Amino acid sequence: MAPHGDKSDAAEEAMVAEAEKRPISTVLIVIAMQTEALPLVNKFNLTEAPDSVFPKGVPWVRYHGFYKDLQINLVWPGKDESLGVDCVGTVPASLVTYASIQALQPDLIINAGTAGGFKDKGACIGDVYLASDVAYHDRRIPIPVFDLYGVGLRQACSTPTLQNELNLKVGKLSTGNSLDMSPHDEASIVANDATVKDMEGAAVAYVADLLKVPAIFVKAVTDIIDGEKPTAEEFLQNLVAVTAALEEGVTKVIDFINGKSLSDL
Amino acid sequence: MAPHGDKSDAAEEAMVAEAEKRPISTVLIVIAMQTEALPLVNKFNLTEAPDSVFPKGVPWVRYHGFYKDLQINLVWPGKDESLGVDCVGTVPASLVTYASIQALQPDLIINAGTAGGFKDKGACIGDVYLASDVAYHDRRIPIPVFDLYGVGLRQACSTPTLQNELNLKVGKLSTGNSLDMSPHDEASIVANDATVKDMEGAAVAYVADLLKVPAIFVKAVTDIIDGEKPTAEEFLQNLVAVTAALEEGVTKVIDFINGKSLSDL
Fold it and tell me: What is the pLDDT of residues B219-231, one digit of tens each?
């Protein structure tokens, strides 16, 4: 195992407690698609960083700027070099989150994006959800303990005041690398008790947990999974309109966070 | 997009051509499970690096040492902090590959491990395959171009001489985050024309491609997917025995690589 450094657990706990009382200063927003990112880039007057903090050759893009008392970094995994589409899914999201934490040492991560929602759980197109928990629905490993590892359940950073004051819907988020939903995925999503389904959340949660950075998940519903329309069609139809709802939701969250500490959330 | 630096494409191509002619010096072996890693750690007399090149707190483990003219680094994503099982799957593999490339600048990556095999394609328990191509079977995104991105087909580094001289079986590798195989996964595996199925290969290939490091994939068959026995049972039954075949296969590859350049492979 990697060495754990000099500091004792007690000293580390004291540092964490101290950090929770300091005002949040640096926020990292992780977004998978350019269409989801640009309204927020404009809203917060962010500019693309010319001095990349990322290795040469990767398509990852960082926008940054100051908004009120916050230093905001918005990262997006960019476009696939050969195919030209957004690098969606868990692997690019985990890599750009990892590299951004290493370079920027954020106080808080916001994974924002669009998601599918279940109407049986109360979701409607354009709803903005704050995830209480995140888990995977496409990592089935039917060996004891490995099965739990596969699900990878993690709680989002606790934000009871933010939830109450902003009146955002709260639900569980389930993550998988497919836009569609196979019967096996569906069974796992039901087991995860999920209201919203995305393609990155659980991977961002994994990296945030690994590097001990608190993370929250803001997801706007583009398509109703248990509705009549095919997911891909409904997703593309609503993507641009719902990014406006996402921008509004994330702005409310950022405005609320400004000047507060983690323990105020 | 991230800046592409000062060098012209022509100068970069010349550097790559030059690198292909230099003897391979540093090899990075990426392995998902401790049981798969230890026979190779012993074989090459590697020792666990006390000065971690990885961030504090991550469970990733690096073993290193010199074997013949090669500097060998073997990395393994370690055990899940709360559950104690190996961190299998695409996200930990991609993260540890990324961090290792950044820290160690290897000339060649070998992703070694166990895999399921299809008897219809000629696979038997204990066979060691070299993958010609790798792709995903659990990233279904039914939108034009995104569908191809999801499959993420990549060719392994071309090694015609190594293949011929070592007499390893060659086949296509398909990657997904589940140990089992749903009907949807099966359809994608058939579309990928895969002979072997693992849980990391395509993610290692993605990161290697992103950072322009050549990669090969050595996979030993622990279970027959289109056979009679349940995968998890057969996998666990054969895991230890098949890691001996994997150790032998990887040793043959390393012995062959020693003293050679990429263009000799």
Answer: 999 999 999 888 8
Give the mean model confidence (pLDDT) for residues A59-84.
Answer: 96
Report DSSP letters for chain A, one per residue. Answer: -----S--HHHHHHHHHHHHHSBP-EEEEE-S-HHHHHHHHHHTT-EE-SS-SSPTT---EEEEEEETTEEEEEEE--B-TTT-SB--SHHHHHHHHHHHHHHH--SEEEEEEEEEE-GGGT--TT-EEEEEEEEESS----STTHHHHHH--EEPPP-HHHHHHHT-EEEEEEE-S-SS--HHHHHHHHHTT-SEEESSHHHHHHHHHHTT--EEEEEEEEEETTSSS-HHHHHHHHHHHHHHHHHHHHHHHHHHHTT-BGGG-
Question: Is B3 in Cβ contact with A178 (below 8 Å)?
Answer: no
Interface test with chain A among B139, B148, B154, B204, by most A beta carbons within 10 Å? B139
A213-240 pLDDT, tens digit each? 999 999 999 999 999 888 888 888 888 8
Q: ipTM > 0.90?
A: yes
| Chain B contact for A11 (CB, 8 A cutoff) | no
What domains can you pick out in chain A, each with its CATH number?
23-257 (3.40.50.1580)
- Residue in chain B nearest A210 by alpha carbon: B58
What is the arithmetic mean of pLDDT over B240-251?
94
For chain B, say whether A9 makes contact (Cβ under 8 Å).
no
B177 — contact with chain A (CB < 8 Å)?
yes
Is the per-residue pLDDT at A205 higher than 90? yes
A9 is catalytic: no
The residue of chain A with its CA nearest to that of B236 is: A143
- Name chain A contacts of B87, Cβ cutoff 8 Å: 149
